[in-house]
What we know:
Helix content: 40-55%
Order of helices and strands: HEHHHEHEEHHHEEHHHEHEEHEHHEH
Radius of gyration: 20 Å
Strand order of the largest sheet: 1-11-10-9-8-7-6
Amino acid sequence: MNSMEKFQKMLSLTPYEDRTQIPVFPMMIVPYAAIAGMTQAETIESPEKWLEAMEKTFAIVGRPDVVMPMCPRDTIFVMGLPARIPGKDLDENALYQFVETPFFDDPEEYEKILQMGWQAWNGMYMCRIQNPPFESPDQLMARYGLMGQTLGMTLGYMYSHGLVPIFESATAPIFDTLSMARSMTEFTYDLYDDPGPIMDIINKFQGDAADQTIGMLKANGGSRVGIFAMRSSATFMSPDMFEEYAWPGLKLMIEKFHAAGILSVLHADANWLPMIKYFKEVPKGSVHIELDGDTDIFKAYDILDGHQSIRGDVNANLLAYGTPDQVSEYCEKLIKMGMNGGFMLGSGCEVPMNAKPENVKALIDAVR
């Protein structure tokens, strides 16, 4: 089986005949530079250098089946938070940093969003958080255009080299974007004090935002979208709050994407265990869930019971400070669990910058 055939086998949710059919995805953005002997600043400044570092890394650790297609420069940009950049604000070999501060102090801003419309307000927000801030929407459109060109280049490279990009476009629920823009603490207070305006925004604009993503993805021939719902886990809110505030918009996105023939790749950082049951409410096979180690993947796999596929979850500490034997031992437990199908072996969230190459190799070799 080639990598795409393994990926499709995983999505079919059918049992594996042997471990070599299980796709492997150590999610890497920043480790390439460290393993290849380049600086973080180099691979952020140049997507071409990032791809060069990727190839050098694969020569050392082996080739995975699935890869992250978004280079560091665009990952930083599209996150939607002010950032400190290696070689500019930080040492050239530092890890990039996101800085969360309230973009607005008055909850009345929610009414402004309702009046302006989500796309217009979010565009203004993205302009103002750049360093230095963009002075016109034209600069923002040009930056999105550059990101599109770069993504096209990286996707073309990956497909031509037999690698499967985990997605071809990415987005975030309005709920989570508002949480980051307002800041976690203030946003939580807003949910307690007066959630009405927040839900009005989600109910009014989430469908249109999903449709826009569908249009862009279809225009580029894509079939998978990354959803970064980074504030919707039990680490940040109670299951009751999730059901009332976060799930409606996320469910709408998943259903719209599925109806358009698009797989939702949910990057589920933090503890999602109390929320896993909700993904049985959306169509079977409509979501691929990436867990980072804070969620008990064994319990999550049991709860899903073949309804959705799942990836995980060799965590950062093990990859950075463990031994190859320890990595292999944990991978064996994951493989044993996942042989019933719908499982992709991978890292828990991203492979850390200080991961030992021999540990990444042990992860990749576990299904060889």
